[in-house]
From TrEMBL:
<feature type="domain" description="Peptidase M28">
    <location>
        <begin position="92"/>
        <end position="293"/>
    </location>
</feature>
<dbReference type="GO" id="GO:0008235">
    <property type="term" value="F:metalloexopeptidase activity"/>
</dbReference>
<dbReference type="InterPro" id="IPR045175">
    <property type="entry name" value="M28_fam"/>
</dbReference>
<dbReference type="Pfam" id="PF04389">
    <property type="entry name" value="Peptidase_M28"/>
</dbReference>
<dbReference type="GO" id="GO:0006508">
    <property type="term" value="P:proteolysis"/>
</dbReference>
<dbReference type="InterPro" id="IPR007484">
    <property type="entry name" value="Peptidase_M28"/>
</dbReference>
<protein>
    <submittedName>
        <fullName>Peptidase M28</fullName>
    </submittedName>
</protein>
Length: 316
């Protein structure tokens, strides 16, 4: 064997080994990546990301670029899915990663978060008038963007994945309602929908996060099984404020009657600036967010690759 051929074989083996190492257990979520996305989305330049505004349009383009750089295709003719139920032109931003299994790829897992917020205070009482929405919900959007980074690199998802950034959530879940209704008409085969809402600050509890509608399906139990520990649980305050019905998961549950739930770390004790101008990047716990997303990587990986019927609704 000549020396050149020998070197090529060695390099090929090294390349193959390096590729194999990109798995759910070895993949590392980078703190600087989390911070960069969150900081951009919650910056003053986006003017509070009100649905239909130029600021939200800028955010939409940023999220499109996340899809493009990771090889995630549009589900429709473009990444922008125009809302049918809002008075101004605004878009969900939707990406699609086809599954690798001949049968399971016909089932979809939806990962979502809303990228809109409430804009600018018309009658400010301080010098700050921008509702930056760092926790609500740039933190959830950042989480989904990091899932795009992971699945885009590995592309080892047996089920197909729809990554959704919803607009007009703050106007009454309008973006997710518009999309879920459209998908229902297309006979979209939903396996499960996992939504991320306000995950920018850690809870001081024995669980990392809570899952809305915990007892309605096996999703919470399976998340903990996939994690190998008690990662999520039930929070009493959820029932008090009807949180299952107050985020974009509910639109999908309403249309499909399939496991559709929201994961959250805002527990009404750890964050004082809900819908206030002080919901800013500087108040977010980037280390917590990075650790949270790191925990979500193997969980979501197992979710999209689990056997048929692993996550199901519980009978009432």
């Amino acid at each position: 064997m000549n020396q050149t051929l020998f070197l090529l074989l060695i390099l090929g083996c090294l390349s193959g080994n390096a590729q194999k190492k990109v798995t759910a257990t070895t993949y590392k979520v980078e703190e600087k990546s989390v911070a960069a996305t969150l900081k951009f989305l919650s910056s003053d330049a986006l003017q509070g990301r009100l649905a239909g505004s130029k600021g939200l349009e800028t955010a939409a383009q940023y999220l499109e670029d996340v899809f493009v750089k990771n090889g995630v295709k549009p589900y429709f003719t473009s990444y922008k899915d125009t809302l049918t139920n809002y008075d101004k032109t605004t878009y969900n931003v939707v990406g699609y990663l086809e599954g690798t299994d001949p049968k399971l790829k016909n089932e979809f897992v939806v990962f979502g978060a809303h990228y809109d917020h409430i804009g600018i205070e018309k009658n400010p009482t301080t010098n700050d008038s921008i509702y930056n929405g760092a926790n609500d919900d740039a933190s959830g959007v950042t989480t989904v963007a990091e899932l795009v980074n992971y699945f885009g690199k590995t592309k080892k998802n047996k089920r197909s994945i729809l990554f959704c950034f919803f607009s007009a959530e703050e106007a009454g879940l309008l973006g997710s309602q518009s999309l879920a209704a459209k998908l229902k008409k297309q006979n979209f085969n939903l396996y499960a929908m996992l939504n991320f809402e306000m995950v920018g600050v850690a809870m001081k509890r024995d669980i990392l996060a809570y899952l809305t509608g915990y007892g309605a399906s096996t999703m919470g139990e399976k998340i903990n099984e996939y994690a190998g520990k008690k990662l999520v649980g039930y929070l009493d305050v959820e029932m008090k404020y009807q949180l299952f019905r107050r985020s974009d998961n509910f639109s999908f549950y309403n249309e499909f009657q399939k496991p559709s739930q929201t994961i959250c770390t805002f527990d009404f004790e750890n964050f004082a600036y809900y819908h206030q101008v002080k919901d800013e990047f500087e108040g977010m716990d980037i280390k917590h967010m990075t650790a949270f997303i790191q925990e979500m990587i193997p969980v979501t990986d197992k979710m999209v690759n689990a056997k048929a019927g692993d996550i199901v609704m519980k009978s009432k």
